[in-house]
Structures are given as structure tokens and as C-alpha cells.
Specification:
With 164 residues, this protein is an alpha+beta fold. The chain is 35% helix and 18% strand. The chain has a four-stranded antiparallel sheet. It has a two-stranded parallel ribbon with strand order 1-2.
């Protein structure tokens, strides 16, 4: 999922702030080897119980990831976006993780966003069709039984049910 681009500016992080971003980048390199379905499932699991990220938190996570990884500062948008989401999660929040495609010209891209706004992206994303969006997963307050997952659709809305 790459688009041609130049390296983003990289600020140097103090040594004491580097371990979590390095951990997130390392984990993202492993996770991005998964199939798209397995990656989506894993990110949904990891997002559970997190509070929604603010734009500032998401931007800080993305900037910290870019500062510790040359690959993330370059064209590796999948690794960058997964690492930024993971770093935000390690800090207690979750931005929306998005994967999308543009047909004319064909391109694939992955990014994070907060409240529908892309975070830290210089690329215009309005031509991209979102094909995977991993929003913050809410932890259920009580168990509804083995078929609880059938009560909501993937986008969180209650599905249509016939009237009796």
C-alpha cells in the first residue's frame, strides 16, 4: 500500500521517549505481514476498551513513529499507520485506522484519522474509497450470550429486523 512520496521531516526523540514508538514500529512490521482480514481482526481486538484519540494524540503518535523509523517516514504507509494506531493504543487511545483505494489513478493507501479527518497526511484523500475502517471497539458491559455478535452489523448500527 504505497504511493510515491518523499521522506517526511523527522524530529529526533529523546532517548527516554523512544522505546514505545520502537515497539509499535516493530509490532507493525510483524502485523503488516498478515492477510488484510487477519490484520483487521487483530486491530479490532487491540482497539478494545480504548478511549477515542484526540487529533493531538493521534498526530503525536504518528510523529513519534516517523521519528524512529525511516521506513515510516517514507512510502510505507501501511506500517506507519498501523504503528501510529498501536502507539496511540499503548498510550490509552485509539484513532480510526483506515485503508483505502483510489481508482483514477489507481493507488492504495493506509492512514489514521480522528472524527473523519486524516491525521498528518499531506496527500489528498478525498478520491480514496475506504475499504477497511477500524474504529475503537467498545467492550460490552454484559454478555448477551453466544450470539451477541449478531445484534450489530460491522459498522456498529443495528441491522434491520423484521417486525412481528
Amino acid at each position: 500500500m504505497t504511493l510515491p512520496m518523499t521522506l517526511e521531516p523527522r524530529a529526533r526523540l529523546p532517548l527516554r521517549r523512544r522505546p514505545l514508538p520502537v515497539l509499535a514500529v516493530t509490532a507493525s512490521r510483524l502485523l503488516t505481514r498478515l492477510s488484510p482480514h487477519a490484520l483487521e481482526r487483530t486491530l479490532r481486538l487491540l482497539s478494545g476498551g480504548a478511549r477515542p484519540a484526540t487529533h493531538a494524540e493521534a498526530l503525536a503518535a504518528r510523529s513519534d513513529v516517523v521519528s524512529v523509523s525511516r521506513r515510516a517516514a517514507g512510502p510505507y504507509c501501511l506500517e506507519r499507520s498501523v504503528a501510529a494506531a498501536l502507539l496511540a493504543r499503548l498510550r490509552g487511545s485509539w484513532p480510526d485506522w483506515v485503508s483505502g483505494v483510489s481508482l483514477l489513478p489507481f493507488a492504495a493507501h493506509a492512514w489514521i484519522e480522528v472524527e473523519g479527518r486524516a491525521v498528518g497526511e499531506s496527500l489528498r484523500l478525498d478520491a480514496f474509497h475506504k475499504n477497511i475502517v477500524v474504529s475503537r471497539a467498545l467492550r460490552p458491559e454484559r454478555s448477551g450470550g453466544p450470539h451477541e455478535h449478531l445484534s450489530e452489523s460491522r459498522d456498529g448500527r443495528t441491522p434491520w429486523t423484521p417486525s412481528t
